[in-house]
UniProtKB/TrEMBL annotation:
Limits of the Bacterial bifunctional deaminase-reductase C-terminal domain: 3-172
Protein name per Swiss-Prot or TrEMBL: Dihydrofolate reductase
Record field: transmembrane: none
GO biological process, one term: riboflavin biosynthetic process
Alphabetized InterPro entries for the sequence: DHFR-like_dom_sf, RibDG_C, Riboflavin_Biosynth_HTPR
UniProt-listed Pfam families: RibD_C
Source taxonomy: Bacteria, Pseudomonadati, Myxococcota, Myxococcia, Myxococcales
């Protein structure tokens, strides 16, 4: 079975974007000029063969004209409101998101990248579908914004697997999700 990894940048106070779905604070020169963490992230993308995202995450790039943000991956956008995909390579999933993710995990292939989306992550955590969490904790406190995860009905237990501290203060934390007893 393929692993689903929630790989996301966050502020120290647990926000993955501003309230308006933008992420400008994460793009400060002091945070991106140390290319080591950026290069590590780009290298990690090669381990994924499929990308999943909710509509709000997808629309960030779409506003900039990016219709296929992960051209080397099979990309799925989960939305009940989008009527059609603006790119034939991007599969739009309107119904049974949980069933579709289960189907994708059961297929042969590389790891699956959950590219942001706190609300979507909450649904997938609740169903026990996320296997790992990779957090790029940025030295920022936003005070408000889009939370890392929303609407959890139960605690998700994690086991710390590794840490890495970058020169610019970004901290990469890798956790395994501890499955709930059956």
């Amino acid at each position: 079975m393929r692993k689903l990894k929630y790989h996301v940048a966050t502020s120290v106070d647990g926000f993955i974007a501003h309230e308006d779905d933008t992420y400008g604070a994460f793009m400060q020169k002091r945070l991106i000029e140390d290319s080591e963490h950026v290069m590590d992230f780009i290298a990690s993308l090669a381990t994924y063969t499929t990308a999943l995202m909710g509509r709000r995450t997808y629309e960030v790039g779409l506003k900039e004209g990016v219709t296929d943000p992960y051209a080397k991956m099979d990309t799925y956008v989960f939305s009940r409101t989008m009527k059609e995909s603006p790119n034939p390579r991007v599969t739009l999933v309107a119904d049974d998101a949980v069933g579709e993710v289960r189907r994708l995990k059961a297929q042969e292939g590389g790891d699956i990248y959950l590219s942001g989306g706190g609300a979507f992550a909450g649904v997938l955590f609740a169903e026990g579908l996320i296997d790992e969490v990779l957090l790029k904790v940025n030295p920022l406190i936003l005070g408000a914004g889009i939370p890392l995860v929303s609407s959890l009905r139960t605690v998700v237990d994690l086991e710390l697997k590794s840490t890495k501290v970058y020169g610019n203060g970004v901290l990469l934390l890798r956790y395994a999700v501890i499955p709930k007893p059956a």
